[in-house]
Specification:
With about 210 residues, the protein is an all-alpha fold. It contains 9 helices and 2 strands, in the order βαααααβαααα. The chain has one domain: Serine Threonine Protein Phosphatase 5, Tetratricopeptide repeat, CATH 1.25.40. The protein is about 70% helix and about 0% strand. The structure holds adenosine-5'-diphosphate and magnesium ion.
Length: about 210
Amino acid sequence: MTDTVSMADLDRWVRAFAELVAENKDSLTGLDAAIGDGDHGANMDRGMRAAVTAIEESGPATARELFTKLGMTVVSSVGGASGPLFGTMFLRIGAALGDGTEISLAQLATGLRAGLDGVRARGKAEPGDKTMLDALAPAVAALETAAATGTAKDEALRSALSAAEGGRDATIAMLARKGRASYLGERSVGHQDPGATTTALLVAAAVRALS
Ligand code: ADP
Ligand code: MG
Protein backbone atom coordinates (compact mmCIF):
# COMPACT_ATOMS: atom_id res chain seq x y z
CA MET A 1 0.00 0.00 0.00
CA THR A 2 1.27 3.44 -0.93
CA ASP A 3 0.14 6.69 0.62
CA THR A 4 -0.97 8.15 -2.71
CA VAL A 5 -4.05 7.45 -4.78
CA SER A 6 -3.59 6.37 -8.41
CA MET A 7 -5.96 6.60 -11.37
CA ALA A 8 -6.70 2.88 -10.96
CA ASP A 9 -7.60 3.58 -7.31
CA LEU A 10 -9.97 6.41 -8.33
CA ASP A 11 -11.63 4.12 -10.85
CA ARG A 12 -12.08 1.46 -8.13
CA TRP A 13 -13.54 4.12 -5.81
CA VAL A 14 -16.22 5.11 -8.33
CA ARG A 15 -17.09 1.46 -8.99
CA ALA A 16 -17.21 0.64 -5.28
CA PHE A 17 -19.53 3.61 -4.69
CA ALA A 18 -21.80 2.48 -7.55
CA GLU A 19 -21.88 -1.03 -6.02
CA LEU A 20 -22.74 0.26 -2.55
CA VAL A 21 -25.48 2.51 -3.95
CA ALA A 22 -26.93 -0.47 -5.87
CA GLU A 23 -26.80 -2.69 -2.76
CA ASN A 24 -28.49 0.01 -0.66
CA LYS A 25 -30.90 1.31 -3.29
CA ASP A 26 -34.04 0.10 -1.55
CA SER A 27 -33.03 1.28 1.91
CA LEU A 28 -32.08 4.73 0.51
CA THR A 29 -35.43 4.94 -1.20
CA GLY A 30 -37.10 3.87 2.04
CA LEU A 31 -35.38 6.69 3.95
CA ASP A 32 -36.51 9.17 1.29
CA ALA A 33 -40.07 7.77 1.37
CA ALA A 34 -40.24 8.70 5.07
CA ILE A 35 -39.28 12.38 4.68
CA GLY A 36 -39.26 13.04 0.92
CA ASP A 37 -40.70 11.50 -2.22
CA GLY A 38 -39.05 8.07 -2.21
CA ASP A 39 -36.80 8.44 -5.23
CA HIS A 40 -33.31 8.91 -3.77
CA GLY A 41 -32.07 5.32 -4.09
CA ALA A 42 -33.37 4.98 -7.65
CA ASN A 43 -31.97 8.42 -8.55
CA MET A 44 -28.47 7.68 -7.32
CA ASP A 45 -28.43 4.14 -8.68
CA ARG A 46 -29.39 5.36 -12.16
CA GLY A 47 -26.74 8.08 -12.02
CA MET A 48 -23.92 5.86 -10.81
CA ARG A 49 -24.66 3.08 -13.30
CA ALA A 50 -24.56 5.67 -16.10
CA ALA A 51 -21.34 7.15 -14.66
CA VAL A 52 -19.53 3.81 -14.51
CA THR A 53 -20.42 3.19 -18.17
CA ALA A 54 -19.44 6.72 -19.24
CA ILE A 55 -16.08 6.45 -17.47
CA GLU A 56 -15.44 3.03 -19.00
CA GLU A 57 -16.16 4.43 -22.47
CA SER A 58 -14.11 7.60 -22.14
CA GLY A 59 -11.06 6.15 -20.34
CA PRO A 60 -10.08 9.28 -18.39
CA ALA A 61 -6.34 9.93 -18.15
CA THR A 62 -6.37 12.38 -15.24
CA ALA A 63 -8.28 12.91 -12.01
CA ARG A 64 -9.92 15.98 -13.52
CA GLU A 65 -11.17 14.02 -16.53
CA LEU A 66 -12.51 11.20 -14.35
CA PHE A 67 -14.40 13.41 -11.89
CA THR A 68 -15.65 15.72 -14.66
CA LYS A 69 -17.13 12.74 -16.50
CA LEU A 70 -18.63 11.47 -13.23
CA GLY A 71 -20.10 14.87 -12.32
CA MET A 72 -21.49 15.62 -15.78
CA THR A 73 -23.11 12.18 -15.99
CA VAL A 74 -24.66 12.48 -12.53
CA VAL A 75 -26.00 15.99 -13.30
CA SER A 76 -27.52 14.86 -16.59
CA SER A 77 -28.96 11.51 -15.47
CA VAL A 78 -30.15 12.17 -11.91
CA GLY A 79 -33.23 14.27 -11.32
CA GLY A 80 -34.25 15.97 -8.11
CA ALA A 81 -32.01 17.79 -5.69
CA SER A 82 -29.34 15.13 -5.51
CA GLY A 83 -28.33 15.21 -9.21
CA PRO A 84 -27.09 18.81 -9.22
CA LEU A 85 -25.72 18.51 -5.67
CA PHE A 86 -23.71 15.29 -6.03
CA GLY A 87 -22.83 16.33 -9.60
CA THR A 88 -21.48 19.69 -8.43
CA MET A 89 -19.50 17.96 -5.70
CA PHE A 90 -17.79 15.66 -8.22
CA LEU A 91 -17.15 18.49 -10.73
CA ARG A 92 -15.52 20.60 -8.02
CA ILE A 93 -13.40 17.69 -6.81
CA GLY A 94 -12.20 17.21 -10.40
CA ALA A 95 -11.35 20.89 -10.85
CA ALA A 96 -9.42 20.91 -7.58
CA LEU A 97 -7.48 17.70 -8.29
CA GLY A 98 -6.53 18.97 -11.74
CA ASP A 99 -4.28 16.99 -14.06
CA GLY A 100 -2.72 14.80 -11.39
CA THR A 101 -2.57 11.03 -11.73
CA GLU A 102 -1.02 10.32 -8.30
CA ILE A 103 -2.90 12.11 -5.54
CA SER A 104 -1.60 12.63 -2.03
CA LEU A 105 -3.81 12.49 1.03
CA ALA A 106 -3.50 16.27 1.40
CA GLN A 107 -4.61 16.77 -2.22
CA LEU A 108 -7.52 14.40 -1.69
CA ALA A 109 -8.57 16.41 1.38
CA THR A 110 -8.28 19.66 -0.63
CA GLY A 111 -10.38 18.15 -3.42
CA LEU A 112 -13.10 17.01 -1.05
CA ARG A 113 -13.09 20.44 0.66
CA ALA A 114 -13.71 22.02 -2.76
CA GLY A 115 -16.54 19.53 -3.31
CA LEU A 116 -18.06 20.43 0.04
CA ASP A 117 -17.85 24.16 -0.75
CA GLY A 118 -19.52 23.50 -4.10
CA VAL A 119 -22.45 21.70 -2.44
CA ARG A 120 -22.84 24.55 0.06
CA ALA A 121 -22.81 27.17 -2.69
CA ARG A 122 -25.25 25.24 -4.84
CA GLY A 123 -27.74 24.15 -2.17
CA LYS A 124 -27.40 27.06 0.27
CA ALA A 125 -27.48 24.62 3.18
CA GLU A 126 -25.13 24.49 6.16
CA PRO A 127 -24.17 21.63 8.47
CA GLY A 128 -27.05 21.09 10.91
CA ASP A 129 -29.74 21.51 8.23
CA LYS A 130 -30.17 17.70 7.89
CA THR A 131 -28.64 17.19 4.44
CA MET A 132 -25.73 15.37 2.80
CA LEU A 133 -23.49 18.11 4.23
CA ASP A 134 -23.91 16.64 7.70
CA ALA A 135 -21.95 13.57 6.64
CA LEU A 136 -19.61 15.31 4.18
CA ALA A 137 -18.40 18.16 6.41
CA PRO A 138 -17.13 15.97 9.29
CA ALA A 139 -15.54 13.52 6.83
CA VAL A 140 -13.62 16.32 5.11
CA ALA A 141 -12.53 17.76 8.46
CA ALA A 142 -11.29 14.34 9.60
CA LEU A 143 -9.35 13.85 6.38
CA GLU A 144 -7.78 17.31 6.66
CA THR A 145 -6.70 16.63 10.24
CA ALA A 146 -5.27 13.26 9.24
CA ALA A 147 -3.38 14.78 6.29
CA ALA A 148 -2.01 17.60 8.46
CA THR A 149 -0.74 15.18 11.10
CA GLY A 150 0.87 12.74 8.66
CA THR A 151 -1.55 9.90 9.36
CA ALA A 152 -1.26 6.88 7.05
CA LYS A 153 -3.82 6.71 4.25
CA ASP A 154 -5.84 3.73 5.44
CA GLU A 155 -6.14 5.07 8.97
CA ALA A 156 -7.04 8.52 7.59
CA LEU A 157 -9.81 7.05 5.44
CA ARG A 158 -11.16 5.02 8.37
CA SER A 159 -11.32 8.17 10.50
CA ALA A 160 -13.15 9.98 7.67
CA LEU A 161 -15.63 7.10 7.52
CA SER A 162 -16.36 7.12 11.22
CA ALA A 163 -16.83 10.91 11.03
CA ALA A 164 -19.20 10.54 8.06
CA GLU A 165 -21.19 7.81 9.81
CA GLY A 166 -21.37 9.87 13.00
CA GLY A 167 -22.65 12.83 10.96
CA ARG A 168 -25.16 10.63 9.15
CA ASP A 169 -26.48 9.27 12.44
CA ALA A 170 -26.71 12.79 13.88
CA THR A 171 -29.19 13.74 11.13
CA ILE A 172 -31.81 11.52 12.83
CA ALA A 173 -32.36 14.08 15.59
CA MET A 174 -32.18 17.10 13.27
CA LEU A 175 -35.02 19.21 11.92
CA ALA A 176 -34.75 19.51 8.12
CA ARG A 177 -34.23 23.08 6.94
CA LYS A 178 -33.47 22.41 3.25
CA GLY A 179 -34.91 20.27 0.50
CA ARG A 180 -38.20 18.39 0.41
CA ALA A 181 -37.83 17.10 3.99
CA SER A 182 -38.05 20.71 5.23
CA TYR A 183 -41.73 20.79 4.15
CA LEU A 184 -42.39 18.34 7.01
CA GLY A 185 -41.09 20.69 9.71
CA GLU A 186 -41.08 18.93 13.10
CA ARG A 187 -42.18 15.67 11.48
CA SER A 188 -38.76 15.40 9.83
CA VAL A 189 -37.21 14.78 13.26
CA GLY A 190 -36.51 11.11 14.04
CA HIS A 191 -35.59 10.12 10.48
CA GLN A 192 -32.14 9.62 8.97
CA ASP A 193 -31.37 11.82 5.98
CA PRO A 194 -31.04 9.86 2.73
CA GLY A 195 -28.43 12.15 1.14
CA ALA A 196 -26.22 11.95 4.26
CA THR A 197 -26.58 8.17 4.11
CA THR A 198 -25.41 8.10 0.48
CA THR A 199 -22.50 10.40 1.37
CA ALA A 200 -21.38 7.96 4.08
CA LEU A 201 -21.48 5.23 1.40
CA LEU A 202 -19.15 7.34 -0.76
CA VAL A 203 -16.64 7.42 2.11
CA ALA A 204 -17.18 3.70 2.81
CA ALA A 205 -16.37 3.08 -0.86
CA ALA A 206 -13.15 5.06 -0.43
CA VAL A 207 -12.13 2.84 2.50
CA ARG A 208 -12.94 -0.25 0.44
CA ALA A 209 -11.15 0.93 -2.73
CA LEU A 210 -8.27 3.12 -1.57
CA SER A 211 -6.96 1.41 1.60
P1 ADP B 1 -35.35 15.18 -4.16
O1 ADP B 1 -35.40 15.74 -2.76
O2 ADP B 1 -35.42 16.26 -5.19
O3 ADP B 1 -36.34 14.09 -4.36
P2 ADP B 1 -33.33 13.20 -3.69
O4 ADP B 1 -34.40 12.46 -3.00
O5 ADP B 1 -32.56 12.43 -4.71
O6 ADP B 1 -33.89 14.53 -4.34
O7 ADP B 1 -32.26 13.72 -2.64
C1 ADP B 1 -32.62 14.18 -1.36
C2 ADP B 1 -31.36 14.51 -0.57
O8 ADP B 1 -30.74 15.66 -1.13
C3 ADP B 1 -31.63 14.87 0.87
O9 ADP B 1 -31.65 13.72 1.68
C4 ADP B 1 -30.49 15.80 1.24
O10 ADP B 1 -29.39 15.11 1.79
C5 ADP B 1 -30.08 16.37 -0.10
N1 ADP B 1 -30.44 17.77 -0.20
C6 ADP B 1 -31.65 18.29 -0.51
N2 ADP B 1 -31.60 19.64 -0.55
C7 ADP B 1 -30.31 19.98 -0.24
C8 ADP B 1 -29.59 21.22 -0.13
N3 ADP B 1 -30.19 22.40 -0.34
N4 ADP B 1 -28.27 21.17 0.19
C9 ADP B 1 -27.65 19.98 0.39
N5 ADP B 1 -28.27 18.78 0.28
C10 ADP B 1 -29.58 18.78 -0.02
MG1 MG C 1 -36.41 12.41 -3.21
